[in-house]
Amino acid sequence: QVQLVESGGGLVQAGGSLRLACAASGGTFSSYVMGWFRQAPGKEREFVAHIRWSGGSTYYADSVLGRFTISRDNDKNTMYLQMSSLKPEDTAVYYCAARKLYVSTYDLWGQGTQVTVSS
Predict the structure, then answer these.
(1) Contacting residues for 119 by C-beta, under 8 A, at least 6 apart
(2) Interatomic CA distance for residues 57 and 50, integer angstroms
(3) DSSP H or E segment with residue 38
(4) What is the DSSP string of the chain?
(5) Is 8 exposed, middle or buried (0-12, 13-18, 19+ CB in 10 A)?
(6) Less crowded by CB within 10 Å, the N or C end of the chain?
(7) Mean pLDDT over residues 10-37, rounded?
(8) Is 90 helix (H, G, I), strand (E, B) or coil?
(9) What are 37-60's pLDDT values in tens digits?
(10) Is 88 helix (H, G, I), strand (E, B) or coil?
């Protein structure tokens, strides 16, 4: 059974950095796109970034472009989100997710990890 498990959330001051990790298990992911999403209190879940597992091409939401970097380690089956220059508005529960390459819907989700940025 495929599982995604996030880690690395926490409390950080504005301007600081955090790195989130998403460990994937129970399958092979060469034909997957892996993504990060976030949901702030009272708001809808929003896309943050994604990476194509094979080839490593990436895409970012405008709100994080230039501040966040998504990457993956094939040997560890782990995806990362390096977050820098954090702002209070980045506060949210961050989720990793996965979908097959030519499918538009993410159907595998982790449990989420809280990121809180204090001003």
Answers:
(1) 14, 88
(2) 8
(3) strand 32-39
(4) --EEEEE--EEEETT--EEEEEEEESS--TTEEEEEEEE-TTS--EEEEEEETTT--EEE-TTTTTTEEEEEETTTTEEEEEE-S--GGG-EEEEEEEEETT-SS--EE---EEEEEE-
(5) middle
(6) N
(7) 94
(8) helix
(9) 999 999 999 999 999 998 889 999
(10) helix
Q: Which of 80, 42, 41, 83 is CA-nearest to residue 63?
A: 83
Whether residue 2 is predicted with pLDDT greater than 90 in this model: the reply is no
Six token digits for residue 21: 């990790």
Contact 36, 48 (CB under 8 A): yes
Instruction: Decide if 48 contacts 64 (C-beta within 8 A).
Output: yes
Quote the tokens at residue 109. 């989700």
The per-residue pLDDT for range 72-119, each reduced to its tens digit, is 998 999 999 999 999 999 999 999 999 999 898 999 999 999 999 999
pLDDT of 28: 82
Flag whether pLDDT at 36 surpasses 90. yes
Tell me which amino acid residue 22 is. C
